[in-house]
Design goal:
InterPro entries: HAD-like_sf, HAD-SF_hydro_IA, HAD_2, HAD_sf, Pyr-5-nucltdase. It is built from twelve helices and eight strands. By secondary structure, it is α/β, with parallel strands linked by helices. Helix 1 crosses helix 4 and helix 2 crosses helix 3. The structure holds magnesium ion.
């Protein structure tokens, strides 16, 4: 008696979660450098911050809060989020982003769900994807507005949004400083002699690399971290992703933190060919094994 027994193995991943900036296009496009310049200009022109303080301030805010914007809100600056995003992204050299037909083909040939997860705003995400010719390659976009839905216009909606931060955050935690007084983070960190410091005011903004932000994004998009591969250029975002159970793809070989590393997203097929394997049929041949229920007479 001979028969074949076929066992279906599920592919390891059913969802691919992609960061956008500097992940789906190279750093050499110059967008990241322009974003940094625009943020600094915004801080000087719109918030009246002294130019000499900008480098230290940007560094501390970015390191402690994930984005400069989140840090500015935390230390007491109040501004319109749409205006900030439009100032920072509105003047970017989008012409440097060209349609990427190689990446497009790769993405369209992958059988998994594909979702964008960016700290940037919706307008920037859609514009960048469109310039890259990738606007129809993804099931959805998780962006600033997705994670901060009540903050569209002003800071007065903090109360609704704070709950997303979880872990005993209360409304009081965002008002440990007076809104009229700017928290001196440079002075605070020089006293504690640390770049990343404890005892800082909380930000109402939800963004990577906060683990609660990533968890919130996964919940919104109905993503199981155990079956998802997360593509990121930022080391700390990769570290946070790993802590909540995502497998990760970093962009460089320099630091062996991620599960996979790519020099360029274009090398995806060579680096992770198993992504293209459809349901694997593991064929097992039996001879003369009397498993009646499996025998086809
Ligand atoms: Mg990035």
């Amino acid at each position: 008696m001979e028969y074949e027994y076929r066992q279906i193995q599920r592919p390891k991943y059913d969802c691919l979660l992609f960061d956008l900036d500097d992940t789906l296009y190279p750093l050499s496009s110059g967008l990241a450098a322009a974003v940094l310049r625009n943020i600094q200009d915004y801080m000087i022109e719109k918030l009246g911050i002294e130019e000499s303080k900008i480098p230290d301030l940007c560094n501390l805010l970015y390191k402690n809060y994930g984005t400069t914007m989140a840090g500015l809100r935390a230390i007491g600056y109040d501004f319109d989020y749409d205006e900030y995003h439009s100032f920072v992204h509105g003047r970017l050299p989008y012409e440097n982003l060209k349609p990427d037909s190689v990446l497009r083909s790769l993405l369209l040939s992958l059988p998994q769900r594909k979702v964008i997860f960016t700290n940037a705003d919706k307008i920037h995400a859609i514009k960048a994807l469109s310039k890259l010719g990738l606007e129809d390659c993804f099931e959805g976009i998780i962006c600033f507005e997705t994670l901060n839905p009540t903050h569209k216009h002003a800071a007065s909606d903090d109360e609704d949004e704070i709950e997303f931060l979880g872990t005993n955050q209360s409304n009081g935690s965002s008002s440990t400083y007076s809104p009229r007084k700017i928290f001196d983070i440079i002075g605070h960190c020089s006293q504690t002699n640390a770049v990343v410091s404890s005892g800082l005011p909380k930000t109402p903004i939800v963004c990577k690399p906060s683990e609660s932000a990533i968890e919130r994004a996964l919940k919104i998009a109905n993503i199981d971290p155990a079956r998802t591969l997360f593509f990121e250029d930022s080391l700390r975002n990769i570290q946070s992703g790993k802590r909540i159970g995502l497998d990760t793809v970093g962009k460089s070989q320099r630091v062996k933190v991620s599960d996979y590393a790519l020099e360029s997203i274009h090398n995806l097929r060579e680096a992770i060919p198993e992504l293209w394997e459809a349901e694997k049929l593991a064929e097992v041949n039996y001879s003369g094994v009397p498993l009646e229920a499996s025998v086809i007479a």
